[in-house]
């Protein structure tokens, strides 16, 4: 078996650095056995999750997706309630979800097709509401109108919009409450996109399902799949991200692959030709983080540099202009970028000093969180906090919900 830690997937080789770093956990690449984890726990070196964390939101709020009890947009980070027990979060096109440190799952926002999992297919919710009564939720990802989540026992659940089979339940019927995807107990990471889903198992295999009109499922065809199908034969996948119609993934040896729609160059292949199977982005083996948004990609390397490519009309690539790129292009020259995420038309990153930066993009509804409604094409710091902890998956979102240490 392999293990997990609060910072993500523990893959392959033993880490060079283990244990608390600034109170939040150390570097731990590689797949770890549970015995190895137990050994470090006994030594007091295994990272522990942050237990006091506030939740902030900004941007489009037309469906109450900011969790403020209203539908008023915000152009600066605004705390959701007063709780300091948030652990994981994610945003979809008009809804949000988050997990607390007690393992409970909460959702809010648009709900017309059951995206919130509350067994109510019509009423929107403007403040966080608990999904059921379970306390063992581990990971959650909201796509366009669907939601998928894993539990601590490795099971996977799905609900919401399902016309392309993106819930992985073997049909195209919407669900308004969580339904288990198969019977397996080895799901580790899940990423929901526009109309398709990708996930990694504890054995390092990659699986995908849903709409496949651009080859985003990675099966060398354009046939939709309503149940999980394995992508290739590799067992070294460590991170997966999805956009509207494309998929990106990183292997344990630092290689980056992309496939699906490529009309804006978002696959990083130097062209605009779609791919229906994984294709490596360049030859580098130093990729550490990747995120796909509205037809563009943002990624970080192990050296702390930041790279973007694809659709850039709103400045979301952070390159000082509004041009598309079909190959990875470095954003500035800094080597302190630690986390990245791409929204529908706005991108963000966290530095090693835990400051949050809007890399650029569309800002008419305050999506960048910098207090105005003016688009940006270069990185701008969001507020003055140095406690930002976790960037969510938000590939189709015009709003942001982020966690900060209290």
Q: Could you tell me the number of beta strands?
A: 30
Q: Which homologous superfamily in CATH is the superfamily of the largest domain?
A: Regulator of chromosome condensation 1/beta-lactamase-inhibitor protein II
> What general form does the structure show?
globular
Number of helices: 1
Query: Structural class from helices and strands?
Result: mainly beta
Quote the average pLDDT. 90
Assembly type of the chains comes to single chain
Structural domain tally: 2
Query: What's the alpha carbon Rg, rounded to whole Å?
Result: 19 Å
What gap, in angstroms, lies between the N and C termini? 34 Å
Percent of residues in beta strands = 35-45%
Strands ordered across the widest β-sheet? 4-3-30-29
Descriptive account of the structure:
This protein is mainly β and 406 residues long. The chain folds into 2 domains: 49 residues, no CATH class; 356 residues, Regulator of chromosome condensation 1/beta-lactamase-inhibitor protein II (Methylamine Dehydrogenase, Chain H, 7 Propeller). The chain contains 1 helix and 30 strands. The strands form 8 sheets. It has a 4-stranded antiparallel β-sheet, with no helix packed on it. A 4-stranded antiparallel β-sheet has the order 5-6-7-8, with no helix packed on it. Strand 29 and strand 30 form a beta hairpin. The longest helix has 9 residues. The protein is globular, with a radius of gyration of 19 Å.
Short description:
The protein is mainly beta and 406 residues long. 2% of the residues lie in helices and 40% in strands.
């Amino acid at each position: 078996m392999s293990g997990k830690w609060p910072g993500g997937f523990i893959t392959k080789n033993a880490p060079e650095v283990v244990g608390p770093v600034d109170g939040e956990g150390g570097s731990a690449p590689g797949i770890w056995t549970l015995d190895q984890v137990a050994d470090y726990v006994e030594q007091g070196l295994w990272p522990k999750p942050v237990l006091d964390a506030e939740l902030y939101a900004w941007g489009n709020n037309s469906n109450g997706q900011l969790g403020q009890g209203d539908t008023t947009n915000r152009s600066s980070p605004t705390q959701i309630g007063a709780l300091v027990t948030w652990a994981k979060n994610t945003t979809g096109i008009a809804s949000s979800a988050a997990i607390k440190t007690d393992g409970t799952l909460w959702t809010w926002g648009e709900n017309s097709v059951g995206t919130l999992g509350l067994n109510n297919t019509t009423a929107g919710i403007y403040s966080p509401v608990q999904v059921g009564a379970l306390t063992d939720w581990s990971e959650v990802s909201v796509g366009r109108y669907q939601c998928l989540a894993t539990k601590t026992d490795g099971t996977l659940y799905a609900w919401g919009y399902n016309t392309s089979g993106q819930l992985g339940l073997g049909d195209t019927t919407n669900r308004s409450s969580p339904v288990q995807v198969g019977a397996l107990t080895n799901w580790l990471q899940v990423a929901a996109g526009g109309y398709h889903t990708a996930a990694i198992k504890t054995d390092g295999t990659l699986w995908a399902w849903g709409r496949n009109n651009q080859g985003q499922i990675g099966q060398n065809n354009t046939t939709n799949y309503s149940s999980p199908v394995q992508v290739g034969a590799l067992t070294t996948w460590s991170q997966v991200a999805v956009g509207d119609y494309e998929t990106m993934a990183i292997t344990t040896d630092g290689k980056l692959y992309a496939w699906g729609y490529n009309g804006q160059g978002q696959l990083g292949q130097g062209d605009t030709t779609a791919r229906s199977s994984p294709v490596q982005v360049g030859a580098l083996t130093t990729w550490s983080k990747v995120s796909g948004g509205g037809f563009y990609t943002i990624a970080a390397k192990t050296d702390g540099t930041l790279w973007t490519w694809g659709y850039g009309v709103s400045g979301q690539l952070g390159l000082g202009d509004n041009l598309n790129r079909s190959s990875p292009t470095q954003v500035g020259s800094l080597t302190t970028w630690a986390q990245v995420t791409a929204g529908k038309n706005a991108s963000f990153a966290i530095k090693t000093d835990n400051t949050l930066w809007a890399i650029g993009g569309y800002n008419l509804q305050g999506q960048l969180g910098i207090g105005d409604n003016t688009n940006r094409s270069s990185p701008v710091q969001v507020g003055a906090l140095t406690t930002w902890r976790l960037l969510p998956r938000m590939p189709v979102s015009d709003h942001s919900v982020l966690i900060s240490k209290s």
